Amino acid sequence: MRYPLLLWAGLAAFLIDQLSKYLVVHILRVQQGAIDVLPPLLVFKYGENRGINFGLFQGDSDAARWVLIGVSLAICVGVLIWLARTAPTKLMLFCGGILIGGALGNVVDRLLYGYVLDFLNMSCCGINNPFVFNLADVFIFAGALGLVLFDGKKPS
To answer: Mean pLDDT of successive 10-residue segments in the chain (156 residues)?
Structure first.
C-alpha cells in the first residue's frame, strides 16, 4: 500500500463506526426507547436512514438502496484517485481515510439491513433537533471538510 496512513485511518473509522452501532443498537437496544446520555446535548435515538446524511433523499425502494451504495463506492474511488494524483499531506491522507472508512461503514449497513443505522441526536440552546446520525456520518463530513481545507494548495 502506497499510503498506510490512509489505510489505517480508514480501517479505524470503519471499525469505530461498526462497533458503536453494534453496541448502541444491539447491546443497549436503543430501538426500545431513547437513552439520555447528556440531555439534551446528546441522546441516543434509534433511526433507520434510507437516504443520505440526516435522512435527505429518502428512498424506500431496493433500487434507491443500490444507487446509494453505488454512489458511496464511487465517492470512495474518487477520493482514492484524487489522492493518488496529488502529493497528499499526512493530514489529507488521514482525512481521506476517515471519509472512506465512514462511507464503507454506511455501505455495510445498507448491505446488511437495507438502511443505515443511526443513533446520535444532538440538541442545544432550546432548539430540538429531530435528526439522528451516526459516527460514519461524522467521519464522512469531517473527512470531506478536511480534504477541502487541507488540500495542500497554496492560495494564489
So the answer is: 91 98 95 94 93 57 86 96 92 97 97 95 90 95 95 65
pTM of structure: 0.90
The pLDDT tens digits of the residues spanning 21-65 come to 999 999 999 999 999 999 989 999 999 988 765 455 556 678 888
- Strand 116-121 versus strand 42-49 pairing type: antiparallel
pLDDT of 53 reads 52
Domain locations along the chain? 4-149
Q: Could you tell me if 17 and 134 are in contact, meaning their C-beta atoms sit under 8 angstroms apart?
A: yes
Contacts of 32 (CB under 8 A, 6+ apart): none
The grid cell for 48 is 433507520
Residues with catalytic function: 118, 137
Question: Cα(6)–Cα(80) distance, rounded to whole angstroms?
Answer: 9
User: How far apart, in whole angstroms, are the C-alpha atoms of residue 1 and residue 5?
Assistant: 10
Decide: 46 and 116 in contact? Cβ < 8 Å: no
Element (H, E) at 42: strand 42-49
Cβ-contact 140, 53 below 8 angstroms: yes
